[in-house]
What does this fold into?
Amino acid sequence: MNYTFTLLLLFRLSMSFGQSCDFTLSGKVSDEMGNPLVGATILLAKQNRGEVADENGFFEFNKLCSGKYQIEVRFVGFKTISSSVKLSANKVWNVTLQSDSTALNEVVISEKHVELAATSTYSSLSGKALEETLGKSLGESLREIPGVNTIQTGPAIFKPVIHGVHSQRVLILNNGIRQEGQNWGAEHAPEVDQFIASNIIVIKDAAAIKYGADALGGVVLVNPAKVPTQAGLGGQVHVIGATNNGSGVLSGYLEGGLKKLPGFGWRAQGTIKKAGDSRTANYVLSNTGFEEQNFSIATAYHSEKKGVDIFYSHFNTSIGILRGTAVETAEDLANAIEREPPQYTSPFTYDIKQPRQSVQHDLLKVNAHLAEGKNEFRLQYGFQNNRRREFDFRLGAALSDIPALGFQLQTHTLDADWERSHSTKFQSCWGVNILYQSNSKIDGTQTIPFIPNFDHYTAGVFAVEKLTLNDWVVELGLRYDFKKYDVIGFNFQNRLYRSNIDFQNFSGTFSTKRKLGNFSSLTTSISNAWRPPNMAELYSLGTHQSAAAIEYGLLLDEKTSEVKEYTATGARVEKAFKGVVGYKIEKQKFTTELTGYVNYIFDFIYLRPRGVTEGLRGIFPYFRYTQTDASFIGFDLFSVYQLNRQLTLTGKASLLRATDETQNDFLIFIPSNRADIGLRYDSKPIKKFSWNAEIKIRWVGMQNRAPQVITPREIIEAQKQGIDIIAQRPDNFDFAPAPDSYFLSSLGLGATWKLEKSKWDIRLSCDNLTNEAYREYTNRLRYFADDVGQNITLGIHFSF
It folds into this structure.
């Protein structure tokens, strides 16, 4: 009996000690469209172990014992999944999360093969959160995110501002292609149809090195859904209307695959927008209507190890500029800034007259990738054709329909990279980027070009190494770029000038991420980047119609109006050193992320007010590109708290402090501090029906770190007395004081009906609920008018 008991005990002990604990559980987390959910949290509930989905949505648990595991998968904006998985061997477990109504914290634009570093500080918008911004421009959607604001020109033109900087310091990748238009102007909005995006991502730190040396602020990635690879037909239709400007939007796409050719798919998409004059709380903003006609076509073939994608898009828009910005005399300019409503205010209309801008942008992309063992190779070619025309009031009927400014920019890009996984702990990515660009004036404008014709050549190489050590992930990146410009233009005397300029430099990044227990992590990064002056910063000459200003470049002699020869000391390269620290804690009901940053930019280039002067069309504020050392220090906060299964509380805040370090002064057009709080209710699904309601309140502070004020009237009165008031008060200045702080509230109601093979979504929302009169400091037309008043939007979305 004792012998039998001993044998049984030894057998049980041998089974226990012999139990294999070397199994692997891996998989991929995706949304309903098959897009990877980067940053999703996967928890083994009873073991207190957690992983985060990487840049491709993959996760992996190692050294697991056989047995049953309770797994929980969470991602903000999607419904949490809890499931039981039995493990007796290595197992692959893929999971698809369904969209929820919780808003996401950041906006990022990303293409399928554009990868995020594991140590990146980034944010993303997708699912319901993205759907609720449909009908808005890309810039309007991005400004919902902590650390991302906009600089705008009136109610229809928005450009993203990341950590205080914008334009060519913020790169935009449209479906993996670096967006190249006349983006040197603050009033030149990105030519991107937001309806193509299935998610948007903003990278705010050193990870931007893979996309170019000049991403001093960050990178915005616009990511379409993958083209389907299975047979079938599907699509979406969006119909949206708004009351403030009487706008109407119709957008949709149709996609499918072929049963006889698995792996092949296609998609056709189009958008039409039309809007009339916007309204403030008290008056019409005359000539601020816009219209847009866009379409895109995509096709792809993918097998297990290789694939090819072809994408073409056309973007076409016409945008009116506030009529009240047009003045003829210095007295008119002073009156225009002082009076309300703006001069030339007239009843609402859909007509778009001068001043206005017309822009067409074509993009072609061909992408191929091949995976062989531990290696993956990618090759991508892109072509873009951008045609911009700006129309102004001109003397003579024959000139009324001839643009005062017109340019055509053609860009060819070639990107190649090689990724190698040396081991599970060490990966590398090496790549090369080549760009050729040709800018030419559109003939027939009968004006001296605002910027010269030029050919631009860029070649860059980069290497990024990633090392994983227990709770640490370390990444090191290095990049070298060479840029060359061949320039030909005319000065004020219509004399020809030529320049051949080249730049070269290194940039680098070092970043880490460390797990702090099961629910929190700390990311840090330091980087240096550089950016040469663009053609507008060097050679701007005269009236910039869309900006309602006269602008002069760094190389234009202020006294003689002659164009000076470029020298490294006369117009210097911007060099930036940026540090970012991010702390994130993510628990079952609570998520908070706090990011702090310091960005010091040597020889920062900005438009500095210099007075008022006269152009061919009349009197305008006069700005001149100037260089100084500048610092940008700030914090971004995002938090979500699940009060219960139906109620979600969200909070966001951004604080920014920018300084002209050379002059110990303030900079102009820097976003002011702001904070948002929102409360959302999501009903329990009743069969196939659910509904939600949300209220948000936004506070935007007064920009107390604004330069001194010298109004046009003060300048005019001083000139009458023979006084140069600008010379007497040489510090930075603005033409009008910073606007007061303001509160805005919004309300949204939504409902969803899920049918057998289709879904209806209806959303009714009201922005500026109380119809407040306010002005945004970063709106370049704040000198002349208030911002937009109450706006009620109804959106109907059908998916099948």
User: Anything to note?
Assistant: The chain has a mean pLDDT of 87. The chain is about 5% helix and 55% strand.
